[in-house]
Amino acid sequence: MALPKAKEDALAARLAALPAVEGKGWLAAARSEALARLSAMGLPGRRDEYWRYTDPASLNAPEAPVARRFDASDEAAPFDGIDRVRLVFVDGVFDAAASDDPALAGVTIERLAEAGRRDIHWAQGLYGVLEARGQTPVARPFAALNTGFASDGVLIHVTGRAAKPVSLVYVHEAETSDAILHHCVKLDPGAELTLLENGPAAARFSKVLEVEVAEGARFHHIRLQGRDHERRAVTHIFARLGAGAEFRSFTLTANGRLTRNEAVVELAGAEARAHVAGAAVGDGDFHHDDTVFITHAAEACESRQVFKKVLMNGAVGVFQGKILVKPGAQKTDGYQISQSLLLDEDSQFLAKPELEIYADDVKCSHGSTSGAIDETALFYLQSRGVPRRTAQALLVLAFLAEAIDEVADETIAEDIRARLERWLARHGSRG
Amino acid sequence: MPMTAALDTSEAVEIREGVDRETIETVQAMAGKYKYGWETEIETEYAPKGLNEDIVRLISEKNGEPDWLLDWRLAAYRRWVRMEEPRWAMLNYPEIDYQDQYYYAKPKSMAQKPKSLDEVDPKLLATYAKLGIPLKEQMLLAGVEGEAEPRKVAVDAVFDSVSVGTTFKAELAKAGVIFCSISEAVREHPELVKQYLGSVVPPTDNFFATLNSAVFSDGSFVYIPKGVRCPMELSTYFRINAENTGQFERTLIVADEGSYVSYLEGCTAPKRDTNQLHAAVVEIVILKDAEVKYSTVQNWYPGDENGVGGIYNFVTKRADCRGDRAKVMWTQVETGSAITWKYPSCILRGDDSQGEFYSIAIANNAQQADTGTKMVHLGKRTKSRIVSKGISAGRAQNTYRGLVSMHPKARDSRNYTQCDSLLIGDKCGAHTVPYIEVRNNSSRVEHEATTSKVDDDQLFYCRSRGMDEEEAVALVVNGFCKEVLQALPMEFAMEAQSLVAISLEGSVG
After folding, report:
1. Does residue A392 lie in a domain region?
2. A413 in any annotated domain
3. What is the C-alpha separation between A302 and B73, in angstroms, rounded?
4. CA atoms within 13 A on the CB side of A6
5. A328: which chain B residues are within 8 Å (Cβ-Cβ)?
6. CA–CA separation, B486 and B150 (whole Å)
């Protein structure tokens, strides 16, 4: 079906402003297929069901809106004390000089641009493939746009147990940078990798991460989306899990003008496990949207979604989560919780926690709550001599705990708690 | 241990641990044994097939309506022609040909409006007698013999496009209560109808409500004056009889300040191989300190086990709590219809107003239900509660779709939602699509789908008496169900009470 004229024009304007990307052979083919998908869908609008709570205008605009740099040097950079392979992107461009040597036993790391020059590459079975699968039943136009126009990214093939994490660091320099990164991670049977990501990346950031987790492989993902900056981001994770595979992803977001994080996870093999979690704290001009779609396509899989948001001064939190249990996916265990703590009258929480179930022997539950901080608990702490601000911070941290508990690495979890505590001390002065 | 039980469709279904046999048998018993599938042979007068402005004029003329109402209908019709049928619900049905049906059908014997029930065609009276609906005032409801003070229920009986008669009108009039068909209300109480019609569900509301606004033929009108507690329960019974005919009834209930009324609605239709359209609108206006209870047992013909025939039920129901401390309670037992598209809603405008929604939706064979509620909190300290239980069997699809919206000014408001679904068999589906929009922080919204969130105090009480947790939950939930079902009229009691046996164990939601 042809797009309406207005949508066609908006898409044409968006595409015309994008820089040309190189790539031939398999990469060029993947890109042109993605462009065809995008042309059929058009860019999203407020009337689209999955954009009713988030305005895509600033993501649709041909030019990236201005976002000033934020100097976060008053605290140590995330993951600083951790032995890792550090790969740095400045405004979406790989910075070899600032990065570590990507040599790691059991892991091969390549740049997308280089691999794209080759005639055949393992990534052709993954790049844009999971993204395309993830386009039904819900269209994700920004992911297709990303596949078509990503200018950089890494391709990681894990054949064994990685001795240390791979860490992607996204530095924001220019006030109007418009970065599009696309990464692929392929884990062979039994392989293990922890992927760390941090930094605001650019004024406007589009990122797709496609992850194939084979039988018995484990993939851990921890992401800190920078802090207190003004960037807009739309990110997608597409993951497909084989039998007995494990996928864990945790995201911390502390401010940022607009963040839309989508996770599309398919549990394709029996007894696979997927945990997707997020903690977001927002003060003021902050719009944070978690959109998660988990498909149980095999028996006895487990999925967990834990999303917590703390909102103040007009911040807006959105959660759209879905568990789809396909026919035959018996013994499914699906859990979903989305909660928001609204610290003042101006903040909003908009949620759509969905279940779609076609199998009878399943255990699926979801819960969603929203409300103010518990005054009784606050009073109790104050009556024990804890100052109100500290008491509030304690209760907020307790509220976020269930999401942070999804971070398996205790050192990192502790660091995240400390960062949140400092952030709350800086922002949570009201009340 | 898994056991097997025979389904009506001769398919075997595995009984899973945690679902008791009684639940499965109850649901199965409801399949393929539609009790109200017979037809009344009666001469019927039809308007020409199809829909156009002339049909709208004809309906208006048949009802002897004033010009303002005809204009209202025509404006709705002209708008409807430009509207698109909504397709967002999780419902699959073939394109409806709106020109291939009749929009007006009435028994020929109703050509002269009977002056009293004694003059009504005996065939019509027999129809309602067979359905268990008493149209004679001296008759008591089945099953209430022996009660010291027999419960009276006033009935408005709607047959295809016309109201056959309304009982207890005189007695209700003594209390100042107006209870009549809406066509009569247009003639007798035009000022009330003009003031409130379309004020809750405007003619522009949605595709089906707009269609209804253009072609509604009859329905009930209720007005409860200030401070009056309606002396008896009011009830409307809708019967579709004519073939290829849609039913478009419109109900308007106005509860003036400090009044109270309990209103019951039932509906059935004959078994037919073709689908029939039903698009109703119910509007309820509740002023300061008034309370309305609205109960429905929807038992339209659901189609056969292969999904042939059945009613397409597209209904817009909305209550507007306009005054402070106004209260509305929707209770629905949805067992019929091939397609159900229905979201009884509460606009909580007055401060401290309250809305409640209790629903049991059962979909079996090829039935599809997409139903739920909307709670729109506008006033301060408004409260709402949603309890929805969906049961799917056979190849049915059952969706709960709901909205809870807390506006910025609805300070200190409260919502509690619980949705539970039960699947029986591995070919059906159960879905939950809640929308939760919270725009202030002093309100609390909770959406739960697990059985562990039954009232903790009650649970604790049961457990302290030695029950295990499952027993305690079952007791608390069944106790709650019973309370809801007992609010239903006696004529529905038999059917509804068997649902009490349905346990919550093994629920998903």
Report:
1. no
2. no
3. 54
4. 2
5. 426
6. 16
Q: Would you call B439 and A348 a contact, using CB atoms and an 8 Å cutoff?
A: yes
| Cross-chain CB nearest to B449 (options A351, A361, A366) | A366
* A310, two tokens: 């703390």
Chain B interface test: which of A355, A363, A376 (most B C-beta within 10 Å): A355
Q: Which of B23, B30, B5, B15 is nearest to B474 (CA)?
A: B23
Domain assignments of chain B as residue spans, ordered by start:
3-142+150-455
Give the DSSP letter of residue A123: G
DSSP state string for A149-203 = H--B-EEEEE-SB-SS-EEEEEE--STT-EEEEEEEEEE-TT-EEEEEEES--SS
Distances (CA, A) of A8 to A14, A15, A30, B95, B354: 10, 11, 22, 29, 47
Contact B432 A366 (CB under 8 A): yes
The CA distance from B60 to B71, in Å, is 10
* Phi (first) and psi of residue B258, to 5 degrees: 70, 10
H/E stretch holding B126: helix B122-131
End-to-end CA, chain A? 53
ipTM: 0.89
Domain membership flag for residue A385: no
The structural domain count of chain A equals 1
Place of tokens 């091969």: A108
CB contact under 8 A, B445 and A368: yes
Q: How far is A51 from chain B (nearest CA, A)?
A: 13
**Peptide bond between residue A137 and the one before it cis (omega within 30 degrees of 0):** yes
What one-character DSSP code corresponds to residue A51?
A: G
Give the model's pLDDT for residue B157.
85
Torsion angle (degrees, nearest 10) of CA B464, B465, B466, B468: -70
Distance from B367 to chain A by nearest Cα, in Å?
A: 15
Chain-chain contact of B432 with A355 (C-beta, under 8 angstroms): yes
Domain that holds residue A318: 5-373
Token pair 């020409």: residue: B48
Instruction: Report the alpha-carbon distance of residue B103 to residue B452 in Å, rounded.
Output: 48
CA of A322: which chain B residue's CA is closest?
B433
CB B276 within 8 A of CB B241: no
Q: What is the pLDDT of residues A210-250, one digit of tens each?
A: 999 999 999 999 999 988 889 999 999 999 999 999 999 99
Distance CA A50, CA A69 (A): 30
DSSP string across A237-300: EEEEE-TT-EEEEEEEEE--SEEEEEEEEEE-STT-EEEEEEEEEEESS-EEEEEEEEEE-STT
Question: What residues of B are in contact with residue A352 (Cβ under 8 Å)?
Answer: 433-436
CA distance A347 to chain B (A): 6
CA distance B96 to chain A (A): 22
Reduce the DSSP state of residue B433 to 3 states and report it.
strand
What span, in angstroms and rounded, lies between the C-alpha atoms of A22 and A114? 10
The separation between the first and the last C-alpha atoms of chain B, rounded to the nearest angstrom, is: 24
3-class SS of residue B489: coil
C-alpha to C-alpha distance for B215 and A353, rounded to whole angstroms: 37
pLDDT of B54 strictly over 90? yes
Is residue A399 in a domain? no
Question: Nearest chain B Cα to A362, which residue?
Answer: B508
Higher-scoring residue by pLDDT: B119, A175: A175
CA atoms within 13 A on the CB side of A227: 21
pLDDT at B390 over 70: yes
Residue with tokens 């406007």: A204
Which residues in chain A have their CB less than 8 angstroms from residue B430's CB? 355, 357
Tell me the pLDDT tens digit for each residue of A20-78: 887 778 999 999 999 999 999 999 999 999 999 999 999 999 999 999 988 888 899 99
Kindly determine whether residue A368 and residue B434, on different chains, have CB atoms separated by under 8 Å.
yes
Q: Structure pTM? A: 0.87
Radius of gyration of chain A (CA): 21
